[in-house]
Amino acid sequence: MTIGGVLLAAGGGSRMGMPKALVVGADGEPWLQRGARVLTEAGCSPVVVVLGARADEAETLLPDGLRVVVGVAEDWRQGMSASLRRGLEVAATFDDVDAVVITLVDLPDLGADAVRRIASVPPGTIRAALRQARYADAPGHPVLIGRDHWNALRQSLTGDTGARQYLSAHGAELVNCSDLGTGRDVDFRH
Fold it and tell me: What's the CATH code, domain 3-180?
């Protein structure tokens, strides 16, 4: 059973005033590096990092020594659907990957424990699995998508929406992660 990771970091960050892939946290660690590290620490391999806006600049922030594969969403201006589609396309090039855990670059309190909780699926069910973190009463990230869903999900994606409608329509299991973080993304610089 192999679970990869997909870190979505392609957007231009219009509300942030810069691409979120270029933001450095108060602790000095770039969000991009932190997101890739969290997925790796949770056991995801490979980790696909999807870049778009200012991709060349963002790529320099990725950590050395991790099994990170960059996929550039050339059509990133179309929104999250373009990023997610590109992440799934790159993940599909790894024949041994049975599922991916997907998360966003702008979740500074996401930790490896939440990723591991989402990824803990019985081996015989992983390729058909759909799981989504829940914080309080709201669904959030990370999300686990089994390989059996990748093609249908890619075909369903449009505009600036991710997998939420697909997950809801296909009965994704909601996994309580409220004890592990807030699930809140960051849209504005303080």
Answer: 3.90.550.10
